[in-house]
Design goal:
Length: 291
């Protein structure tokens, strides 16, 4: 019997539904079922009756378990609190991963917030590519990542849309106007940033039944800009991924606007700690204020 099982048990009792409990706890429905089954095996009793007509009902024995579960969790949280206060490592460290243009936005705000409201919570940031961020989330090295949202095996929370623009030499024909249609660039030599950043751009064009003529996929934005400056092609990059452009280069928007969705991803099989949930909530507030 584990504390996590008891947490899940009480949430199922409260919601009277495995699916609703899983959504609130930010874990998968099979993970909830597995936790309840494990608790029932340990106790040797059935805690719920699954009736197709009446739905999910707690058993008489389940009702008797509820107050003990609440007391155990209360005691556990008291112990956890005391350990956090008096142990040598008093801080609750939240591990976050994101790519540089994202962490530079949120890291200062989050550090300032927790420094003022709860100094016991510390933040650890790891910067990386889209692929690296997802890898860190999957293996549990970080509590959550802030990155491009894709339809993979992660839970996600949408934050904002990030505009993608064309970067071309100022003398390039496409740079004559402020915007270009997507079909106007398909015959150009296109430069993209790799490590997962390129996938959303390629998919966006495919949704319009267009295939990019990709000449190079590079490791960094600076390399992409240098190649464009050298006349090796034109690049499609996030507008927020660079602070300035050489005078010989120009950004051009797309018609319709090309964007990628940025959000928070986390493992669907790992319950989020209260401090992590608070951190995610604050990120949402920061984003609303900036809109």
């Amino acid at each position: 019997m584990t504390i996590t099982q008891l947490y899940i048990f009480l949430k199922v009792v409260e919601e009277k539904n495995f699916t609703k409990a899983s959504e609130i706890l930010h874990i998968s429905q099979p993970a909830v079922s597995h936790a309840i089954s494990g608790l029932e095996r340990t106790l040797g009793v059935s805690l719920f009756i699954r009736d197709k007509k009446k739905g999910l009902e707690i058993t008489e024995m389940g009702r008797k378990v509820v107050p003990y579960a609440k007391e155990l969790i209360k005691q556990y949280e008291s112990i956890e609190h005391e350990v956090r206060l008096f142990s040598e490592n008093k801080a609750d460290v939240i591990h976050i991963s994101g790519f540089p243009s994202i962490t530079s936005v949120y890291m200062p705000k989050l550090i300032s917030y927790f420094k003022e409201h709860d100094p016991s919570i510390q933040l650890s940031f790891t910067e990386g590519s889209v692929n690296k961020i997802k890898e860190l989330v999957m293996d549990g090295s970080v509590d959550f990542g802030i990155t491009i949202i894709t339809e993979e095996d992660h839970q996600s929370i949408f934050l904002f849309e990030e505009e993608m623009v064309l970067v071309a030499p100022s003398a390039h024909p496409l740079a004559e106007g402020e915007a270009v249609k997507m079909e106007e660039v398909v015959d150009e030599q296109i430069i993209l940033c790799g490590h997962g950043f390129e996938k959303s751009t390629i998919e966006a064009f495919r949704q319009h039944h267009l295939e990019l003529n990709i000449s190079h996929i590079v490791d960094s934005v600076s390399t992409a800009l240098s190649m464009v400056k050298g006349g090796l092609g034109i690049a499609i990059l996030s507008r927020k991924s660079f602070e300035y452009l050489p005078e010989t280069l120009q950004t051009i928007s797309f018609i319709p606007t090309l964007h990628r969705e940025i959000g928070i991803i986390y493992s669907k099989d790992k319950p989020l700690r209260k401090s992590v949930q608070l951190c995610i909530k604050e990120i949402g507030k920061f984003n609303q204020l900036s809109e």
